[in-house]
Amino acid sequence: MGLFVVISAVMQGLSQNRRAVKFFAVGTVVKFVLQWPCTYFLGSFGPLLSTGIGLTVANWLILRYLNRHFGFEKRMLDIAFRKISKYSLFMYAAALLTVYGLNFVVQLIGNPFGRVVSLIVTLVAVLVGGVIYLYLALKSRIADMILGPRSDKLRRLLKIE
Length: 161
Prior knowledge:
Layout: H1 2-13, H2 17-42, H3 45-70, H4 74-109, H5 115-139, H6 144-147, H7 150-158
């Protein structure tokens, strides 16, 4: 979804609004066609999968168009995508381990299913995952693409070389 937001903004910046909307419509049609079968076979995971497939189709159409008409450098996008995917997996693993660890501690203490406890566990997991992702993005300098010069200030502030 993040990739779609970025590349559709690129399309709009290149005055290709109509084409961007057309590619989004194709992705939406793919999503709606797959929605029922995915939901039937996969349950509550189905709509998520059909949305992901629809966005993937739209992304592929936009990237193919940008590459054919503007010489879009796909190799650089692949490198960034791999790094972001890897860091996202690290973030997910850290957040998941945090949730399991805190749930284990909470079950030892007492009421594991209270709303306040669930909120605290969620906030701590988000904080842990976010800090890990931020560190990795700043350390590898992938954050420079999004934050620009502000990433240097953050690196100095957090003492990341």
